[in-house]
Amino acid sequence: MAEEPTIRYQIRHKTSYQYGGRIDLGHNVAVLEPCTDATQEVSSFELQIEPEVCFLSRREDWLGNQAHYFEISESHQSLDVISISEVEKRPPVALAELPSSVLEGITWPACDQDDDLLAPHRLESQACPFRGEPLSGMLLEFGSLPKAEPGQTVFGYAMALTTKMFEEFQYVPSVTTTETTVQALLVDKRGVCQDFAHVMLSVLRQQGIPARYVSGYLETQPPPGQEKLQGADATHAWVEVFDPLSGWVGFDPTNNCPAGPAHLKVAHGRDYFDVQPVRGTVVGSGLSQLAVEVDVIRAKG
Amino acid sequence: MLQAELLYQPLEGTLDHAFDPSAPDFQSAVSPAWRFLFESLQRNSTDILPVWQNEVSRVSRNRGLAYHDQGFQVDVDAGWQLDAVPWIFGADEWSKLDQGAGQRLRLFEALFRDLYGDQRVLTEKWLPAGIIFGHPLFTPVLIERVRNGLRENGALPLGLGMSAMDVAFRAPGDPVALNDRFDCPFGLGLTVENRSVINRVLPRLFRRNRVRRIAGFFESWFEFLAESAPSKEDGVVLGVLTDEQVEASLADETGFLANYCGLMRLSPADLTVREGRVFLRALQGLVPVDVLWRMTQGAALDPLERAGALQGVGTAGSFEALRRGTIAIASHPGTGVLQSPSIYPFLRRICKELLGEDLIIPSVATWWCGQKEELSHVLENLSTMIIKPALHHKGRPALRGSLLSAAELEDLRQRILAAPHDFVGQVDLDITTVPTFAKHGTLQPEPVAMRMYGFMDREGQPSYLPGGLGRVSVGGKSLFSDQGGGISKDIWVRSDGGKGMDARSHEKQPSIQAIAERQLQAGALAVTPSRTAENLFWTGRYAERCYAVSRFTSRLMNGNTAAFNRSYEAERDHAFDLFQLLNHIFEQESSLPPECSIDDLLEQVFFHPQHGAGLPSNLRAMGFASSQVREEWSLISVRAINACTRPWLKVDGIPKGDGVRETMLEDLELNLTAFLGLNLDNMTRDEGWAMLEAGRRIERALLVLGGMSYLARSDMGSEASLQLAASFLVIFDSSRTYQTRYRSTPKFAHISELLLADERYPRSVMNMFRRIKTCVRMLPDSKPVKKRIYDTLQECKDSLAAVIAHIAEGEDASLELIARDLDALRDQVGQLFDEITVHYFSHSQPNF
Fold this sequence. Notes:
The complex is a heterodimer of chains A (301) and B (848). Chain A has 301 residues and is α+β, with helices and mostly antiparallel strands. Chain A contains four helices and 14 strands. Chain A has two domains: 7-90 and 276-298, Immunoglobulin-like (Sandwich), CATH 2.60.40; 95-273, C8orf32 fold. With 848 residues, chain B is an alpha+beta fold.
């Protein structure tokens, strides 16, 4: 078998806040540094913050993500957080080649090979509840179809669910917010990648399958014959499903595929709120407006 | 010879701590620990009990701290009642209990470190992970902190802090743990308060029993906190962390503790994180804080690292400070998860695994419904069990199956089936009784439990308060609400007698002075938190405002006696004039028609519970501001404040009837004067006092300026306006001085001279300005800031001088212009207030 080619990506992710009034003090946490795992390696990472920070620290959080904490104490009316990463990506092993356990009678270990507990990823979380009526029944109904087949494997089920999500849900920006509930999504069936991921996580966890939220980027291709526009890319979200035989594997319900060579992972968590790219509190007045620009560029040569 | 059975009979079939009816003779029937109490009752007969109980009520009420029938909010809970009869433990009995409680504390400490560290209890499956990760108070963002703390420093981070255990007895000497509490357990302040009251009511009995004192425990606790400070270079700054706005009962609790221990009471809004370190916003600027005794329940400490919306209370960055080890917080955030009763079924095993010991004090038998067999056991025995929420108890009461109807039981069954992991069933224990008076008015056996308080010191040694919060069961058996009030008891622990007496607490008490001295050495007591300053400032402002409104009100009610020859119409018009004057002073819009009656005015404005210019709302505001800085007041000041506010804030409204309100008003004026006078006499002349004083003087200057601008606008020729001016002088306590000095009917020029210009007259605005200057001088130095405030003050004085000069022009002066100048001056004084707020309270300015 031939060596799979490694692709070098440069990612530029800019988050801008515009405040209605002057801000005297801001505390923030950014989860923007891509992770290094079996399919990708981060060769450089840089955080540019405007206005200048008076304090910055980096740590590994409880989920294994790289988090940056920073403070801004000079009076400001806007905040720009720009992360610039270089990632070397190898294509992951094809789904068909990965061993997967039969769902019936499966016993989950308490932890996987990375010494992570599975429990947090099998339980309800803030954005991914699955208990209580009518939500519980709605999720059961939505998730039941592909599971009916005997001998169904963990990954087989996850892929079938990915396809069902893709077919029944419509990708429509700006109709949902971070507050939109899974129950509302199951009724409306419209939203963005983050919503797709939350619904799928609720379904999987209700079935007892460990699953986690992944934040990251997806390289997009410009229409044939056109130059790629700056800022055309976006942050992306998908899910990872755990199988005792193969560990965590990514599925992208927004694009009906397993996570592939164009899926660049930043962090994982129980849901969006564990890996929010930039979150902050400010002392001062005025509502804020948020703008995000992302560029994912293949390095030349 | 004791004849105890005449005094007291235990219940048939229930074990009692004081008395054993099956004993062969009286001597052995009364347990030794209770002998002195029974002797005392026998000597005096039980008739002495109502006397004791009355004394308890009186002392409690006068202290006005923990017990209250009426707080500053209109809807406060029923509060606690204290039983005059203590619950007495012998030395041996207590020492066994102490040992068992200490083991439980060591166990939970180990469990806490494990859950926020390696999580062996989960990976080894000694405890189902769902119990932990499903708990809303489990704070996984802190997991790494403990891991890193253990790895990098080699030292252990600050652990659980103050912990509590609720314990009941199946038989004397056979304790069972009902609850374990770690997330800022309630009731410690109440416990101290109970002790202070009972000690005063039963001093001889207390001494005869050689009851162990509790001050030593607090001294050790304080030492522990001080030693926990990450850096001890420039002395240690300690604070009690409370929520900014707390329920009255909790405000009492924390205020009392802060007072007792001489610690600053801080709220998350007092704190700010700069460069990964926690600072206190103080009048002096930003002061680094080393240790916080946290009394804010729940997870809301750092809004930055909590899922979901970011609004709300807390100090952003405080978790980062914890991670960096720049601050110690006890109780450590995230301890709430240990309170889950679903841990109980697994605790015996965990104890064996983590400590290598057998559990000494068992937990009450508990079944977690998250497991199949346990679930069916609970469902089968629903009608005899206590059902509790497994994960988080706040706002979700425990249910006693035996008290539920068939329909309610079925409903409960359905709720359990829908979310079994969220419920536990517990045995409803038959528990022991002790003699109790307060419940029935006679000495009766009542089932009891108690809350013990302890902590583990830096060497890993548990230390327990000798005493605790005794509680009388609400409906018999072993169900106790978590806060909710009820009858409480002081707990007495007898020392070994003679030489064996607890040497530390016996000889070194009162040790609280030592605590205060240490704080002083550390410079901590010299720091005034900005919020404290702000609340003192507002207490001063509202006190002045309340005084003015009460003077208005009594003038309105009694004005007729001063001019009894006038018509009812004139009297009513005068009342409306006064009302308009008040509106002008308080910048309120009137919605009442001029033809309304005096009674309408009184009901809809002055006595109205919500009206901004009325008495109740201003008194409520004063009470609230003062309650936020309770530790600043002497006991007698608290009594004065309570006497001012309580009669006016009753749930069922202000009492009515001929003369009742007149008397209330007189009392109010007297009590307000007493309160303000007390502060003049008793308060240290520090920045806090300066703030209270500045608030008063600024408010008074505003009141007088507002009134004068209204007078300038009214036509001073008419009979009605003369009457108004006369009333104005009365309201501002200047009528007599005016009469002595001018011997004339009220004239605007004269009133101005007296109330605006005369710097020596203590009610004049010029005098206010001088006093405000004295206050500003006392504020911490920050040169550019102070200069700006002095400048503004000087501008105010200059403007006032200009107005006075204008008025002195006599006939040529335009009253309309004067009125406008006075209004402008009022704005200038307002600006002075804004500057103080910005620089000393909010710290929103850079370079400070």
